[in-house]
């Protein structure tokens, strides 16, 4: 299922319907479990027939007929067991198809926690592995335990009561296992997530860490996280292992009791010899699901926690998603209305409210010291961050109530530090869509990096990322700029586009941006590079939570008087 198909169809379906899509698999698994558990009665019935009829009559023909019937039924049992395992595997794939796209897309909707994507994907894998490995099957077998207990009562009431009492004790052990281990298992999962996230951040910054000699202290910190996780894991594992071992021991004792009591009843002529073996087999079948459920209890807690997390993601996605009508290419008309911005998760405004309207071919350069809010403003304008207040409209449509997949076709954005995704350069430029060579190379030419790409070993087919070529920061920047320019966006937003570019590359970029501006594209860019100011009609000055719009000519005229500029910015805020 493609992301676009999901976005237009499945994503608009209420999460409860997605949840119900696995119900047919549950029903089918229950039906196969019914067949499997009924056929588990074959072995004890066969033993009864052999001991009570075949041995007493000495009939070889009867033995052959009974054996053929048992083998035939047990063959059906094998097929039914394989079928229910296959059904759970298919259910796992259905969950992947239904939940996977929502989990993936949710990380882009939730601006406050994009780092949760690995955890959400891990939750999805946890649920899938729990199903694929058949760890859920004992819980499908549990409802059939009364069937075997009933059969034990038919063998003899005393044998039946031994099974009932033993089953109740095992259930109590299961409850104690749940109460004693659930909290520690969940805490261990959280601690493990913290340790893994810490390791991921170290990996992302390995060059800085290595150059600054931070490896040893960071190793110590990481080990402390892992030790905390291991301690919690061992606490929970110790309890669950203890109870599981007690359950296994109890099960063996119950089977011995069934054999011993059965032998006594045979001596009292209250039961046949074959019933001894049949009762023991039935005892094992009745208690096996409880025993197996105890063995899988730790995995069950993990899978249950992961499932609830997925349900929460689906519920929030179902509440936030809605039908949308794909737009035609919007007019080049950007309206910023009473906009107030803040960092994600913060209520502190970075800038006062302001209004800006840009028509076709208009351009603004945003200037200001580090930390003044330039990047936050750009991220809000392109719709990546939610504003604290106000609206940003392109062609009359609210950027923050516009489906990201549809909106992104008309917007180009390049961050200050470009990171390329694993794939070819052509795929990165085309945003991993089915782009034509003309569109891909045209974007690279406008960015001024077409010749640079051609000089790479495989040109546009050069792979980047793990196992691929290592590009310099300037080359990555060029590919990122070409990606932003791809398919001539209505609005082009660039964060420090001149960073890491040499003089020739910068001149090529200037020519391309000037061409786009003359063609009616709207251009907004933040920069410290004065060479790019010739592209801007106006300059938006940010400083100390204040802003001021001045023409580029006025700004250039007052560059020699920084105090005047600062005073103007403060007056604008007032």
Automatic annotation (TrEMBL):
Keyword vocabulary terms for this entry: ATP-binding, Membrane, Nucleotide-binding, Transmembrane, Transmembrane helix
Annotated localization: Cell membrane
Domain ABC transporter: 334-569
Pfam families: ABC_membrane, ABC_tran
Domain annotation ABC transmembrane type-1: ranges: 27-302
Source superkingdom: Bacteria
Membrane association type: Multi-pass membrane protein
InterPro entries with a match to the protein in the record: AAA+_ATPase (IPR003593), ABC1_TM_dom (IPR011527), ABC1_TM_sf (IPR036640), ABC_transporter-like_ATP-bd (IPR003439), ATPase_T1SS_PrtD-like (IPR010128), P-loop_NTPase (IPR027417), Type_1_exporter (IPR039421)
Main location: membrane
UniProt-listed GO biological process terms: protein secretion by the type I secretion system
Transmembrane segments: 25-48, 60-80, 147-173, 256-283
GO cellular component: plasma membrane; type I protein secretion system complex
GO MF, one example: ABC-type transporter activity
Name of the molecule in the record: Peptidase
Species assigned in the record: Litorimonas cladophorae
Lineage: Bacteria, Pseudomonadati, Pseudomonadota, Alphaproteobacteria, Maricaulales
């Amino acid at each position: 299922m493609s992301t676009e198909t999901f976005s237009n169809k499945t994503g608009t379906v209420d999460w409860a319907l997605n949840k119900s899509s696995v119900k047919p698999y549950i029903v089918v698994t229950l039906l196969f479990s019914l067949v499997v558990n009924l056929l588990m009665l074959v072995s004890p019935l066969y033993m009864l027939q052999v001991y009570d009829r075949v041995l007493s009559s000495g009939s070889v023909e009867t033995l052959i007929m009974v054996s053929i019937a048992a083998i035939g039924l047990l063959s059906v049992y094998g097929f039914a067991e394989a079928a229910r395992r296959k059904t759970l595997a298919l259910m796992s794939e259905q969950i992947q198809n239904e939940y996977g796209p929502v989990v993936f897309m949710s990380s882009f909707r939730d601006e406050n926690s994009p780092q949760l994507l690995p955890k959400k994907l891990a939750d999805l894998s946890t649920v899938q592995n729990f199903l694929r490995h058949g760890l859920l099957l004992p819980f499908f077998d549990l409802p059939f335990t009364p069937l075997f207990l009933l059969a034990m009562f038919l063998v003899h009431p005393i044998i039946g009561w031994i099974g009932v009492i033993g089953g109740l004790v095992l259930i109590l052990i299961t409850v104690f296992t749940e109460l004693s281990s659930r909290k520690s298992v969940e805490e261990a999962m959280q601690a493990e997530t913290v340790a893994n996230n810490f390791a991921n951040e170290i990996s992302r910054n390995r060059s800085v860490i290595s150059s600054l000699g931070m490896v040893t202290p960071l190793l110590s910190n990481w080990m402390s996280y892992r030790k905390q996780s291991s301690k919690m894991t061992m606490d929970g594992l110790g309890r669950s292992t203890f109870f599981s071992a007690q359950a296994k021991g109890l099960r063996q004792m119950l089977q011995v009791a069934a054999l011993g009591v059965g032998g006594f009843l045979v001596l009292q002529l209250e039961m046949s010899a074959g019933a001894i073996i049949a009762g023991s087999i039935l005892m094992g079948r009745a208690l096996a699901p409880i025993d197996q459920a105890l063995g899988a209890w730790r995995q069950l807690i993990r899978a249950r926690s992961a499932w609830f997390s997925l349900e929460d993601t689906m519920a929030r996605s179902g509440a936030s998603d809605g039908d949308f009508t794909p737009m035609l290419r919007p007019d080049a008309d950007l309206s910023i209305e009473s906009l107030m911005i803040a960092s994600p998760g913060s209520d502190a405004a970075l800038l006062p409210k302001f209004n800006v309207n840009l028509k076709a071919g208009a351009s603004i350069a945003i200037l200001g010291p580090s930390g003044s809010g330039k990047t936050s403003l750009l991220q809000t304008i392109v719709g990546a961050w939610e504003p604290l207040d106000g609206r940003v409209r392109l062609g009359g449509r609210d950027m923050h109530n516009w489906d990201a997949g549809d909106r992104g076709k008309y917007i180009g954005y390049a961050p200050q530090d470009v990171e390329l995704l694993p794939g070819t350069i052509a795929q990165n430029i085309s945003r991993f869509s089915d782009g034509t060579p003309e569109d891909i190379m045209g974007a690279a030419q406008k960015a001024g990096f077409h010749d640079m790409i051609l000089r790479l070993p495989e040109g546009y087919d050069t792979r980047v990322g793990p196992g691929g070529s290592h590009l310099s920061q300037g080359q990555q920047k060029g590919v990122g700029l070409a990606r932003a320019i791809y398919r001539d966006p209505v609005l082009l937003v660039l964060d420090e586009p001149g960073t890491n570019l040499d003089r020739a590359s910068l001149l090529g970029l200037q020519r391309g941006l000037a061409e786009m501006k003359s063609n009616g594209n709207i251009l907004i860019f933040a920069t410290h590079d004065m060479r790019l100011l010739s592209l801007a009609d106006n300059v938006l000055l940010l400083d100390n939570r204040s802003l001021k719009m001045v023409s580029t000519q006025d700004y250039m005229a007052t560059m020699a008087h920084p105090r005047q500029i600062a005073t103007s910015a403060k007056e604008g805020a007032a």
